[in-house]
Amino acid sequence: MTDTDNQLRHLAIIMDGNGRWAKKRGLPRAMGHRKGAETVKEIVRAAGEMGVRYLTLYAFSTENWQRSEEEVSALMDLLRQYLKYDLKELQENGVRIIFIGERRMLDDDIIRQMAHLEEATAANEKMTLCIALSYGSRQEIVSAAQKIAALAKRGDISPEDVDIKMFSDMLYTKDMPDPDLLIRTSGEQRISNYLLWQIAYAELFFTPTLWPDFGKEELASIIQNFNQRERRYGKV
Ligand code: IPE
Ligand code: IPE
Ligand code: MG
Is there a catalytic annotation at residue 161? Predict the structure, then answer.
């Protein structure tokens, strides 16, 4: 295998551990999220510098709606701040931003700002930053199945037409390659309804570091570890 086999085109991250970071310091959970938002900025910049073409960050899951109203509204306020601040930085760094997830669950002003950022950065080519917001992978897969069923019912396709490519094209991530590497911070070793279809052959990396403590040095060392792995895709 040559080095180029391990090209890291798409990095996906489950940014976990904000609450525990705050708890360890006797702070409210919202402070952990605030610190975590700073880590987001550092990692977006670092990933671009390291040549990552697609970066997908899990910011809020469909299940996270079940958290307390206080925590959800703190997270939404942080999101508002992030969406406002970010355009200049995204433009300067050639970053295109896209969002995946159930948008209609979010407040109108947030939905509008998301659409605005997507439009304003659509021509940027250095890196695509994909934010998974109100995202759930099972829901995404079910909605793909619904779209396909509707096409079949209309007679536009027949069952034999359904294949991996068509199914992938019905997902939110249709224009992106599958993740090559998935990192989860905070020590939990689970996927929590993230990109279930897309990570079929991703390399997984779990680090005990809490997200607010994560940084570019650790990212670089994880990428180094990834580069040494042998991806076999079922072959020998
Ligand atoms: C990740 O940190 C951020 C979100 C899920 C929104 P958590 O809030 O899950 O932090 P822990 O896991 O409770 O430490
Ligand atoms: C996954 O973290 C979701 C995000 C990081 C946005 P959670 O903290 O919600 O996951 P569980 O509950 O530990 O599985
Ligand atoms: Mg968590």
Answer: no
